[in-house]
Each structure stands twice: as C-alpha cells, then as structure tokens.
Design brief:
The protein is mostly helical.
Length: about 180
C-alpha cells in the first residue's frame, strides 16, 4: 500500500531526510555492515512512488561512498540495494510485521549473496574455484549477522516512526475536529 504523497514538497522532504539519515549513519562509527541502506530500500520500496523508491538508496550510497571511498564493488552493492527496493515493492504492498521481517531477512540475504559473490569474482582474496567461493561465503558469515541485525533494527525504526507519525497526525486531526464542534 503506497502512501499517497501527492504533495511534491512532502516527497522531496521525505527523500532528502532519508538520504541525510542514511549518509549520516554510514559516516558515524558503527559495527561493520550495521547500516540503514537496505532498510531505507525496503521502506521506500514499500511506501514511496516507484521512481523515488529505486533511486533513494542509490543516491544515499553514492553520496556516502564519495566520503567513505569508492571501491571496485560499488556496482554490486548499489545494485543489491536497488534489487531490495524492487523486492519490497512486491512483497510489502500491504505491510505487516511478518512481511517486514521476511522481506528484511530476504534483503539481507540478497546483499550477502551479491556482495560476497562480487568479492569472489574479483579474484583478489579467494581462489577462483568452488572451494574459494565457499570460503568467501563462510568468512563473510559474521558480516551477515551484522547486516541482518542492522536491517531489522532500522526497518523497525523506520516503519515504527512512520506509523507513529501517522497515528499522531490522525489524532491531531480528530482533536481539531472535536475542538471545532
């Protein structure tokens, strides 16, 4: 269920706010892979119009990677977040807690599989055979734990904040109506 953001200024504020949040959180000290980008991809894929949903996590990655440092695997990481936004668009049409958890864990797995496959393909750390691929994924398991925990934490924060704001707005409208009456 997409939110109706017909007001272009509101869409711009949400977009800029989420990008600023993502960039800030990536630049502040944090455990490896404990970042909000996948959560923002899920949130935007679930609730924002399509044209914003796909580019929002990419803009956040590009800006923060300029400061953190560009690397040879940026296309794999950036692509994985775009794919996560696409996944969320289709799995989160009517968001609920179980869909959020399932989509978040699937998104974490997508990032894990794509980014570590790219590390292996790059050929600088692991032998280019099946044993090297298995070793690459095995060595990345601690990062997967951080990815999943970060994604779950930030998805809970983003959707929780969204629904809390929605409740507050609804209550303030009904309060204004009752005061006028």
């Amino acid at each position: 269920m997409k939110i109706s953001l017909n007001n272009k200024l509101l869409i711009l504020l949400v977009f800029v706010g989420l990008v600023a949040f993502a960039v800030t959180m990536r630049l502040l000290p944090h455990p490896p892979n404990f970042a909000p980008i996948a959560a923002i991809a899920i949130f935007s894929g679930a609730l924002l119009p399509r044209k914003y949903a796909y580019i929002l996590p990419l803009v956040a990655m590009i800006i923060s990677d300029i400061f953190i440092g560009l690397h040879p695997l940026v296309y794999a990481t950036w692509g994985s977040f775009a794919l996560i936004a696409v996944l969320a668009e289709y799995t989160m049409r009517r968001p609920n807690v179980s869909k959020m958890v399932g989509t978040t864990l699937a998104g974490s797995l997508i990032f894990f599989v794509i980014s570590n496959f790219a590390v292996w393909v790059q050929g600088t750390m692991y032998s280019q055979n099946f044993a090297g691929l298995v070793q690459c994924y095995y060595n990345a398991l601690p990062f997967f734990r951080n990815t999943a925990m970060g994604d779950l934490t930030y998805v809970a924060f983003l959707f929780g904040s969204y629904y809390l704001i929605k409740i507050i707005v609804k209550q303030s409208k009904s309060l204004a109506i009752s005061i006028r009456a």
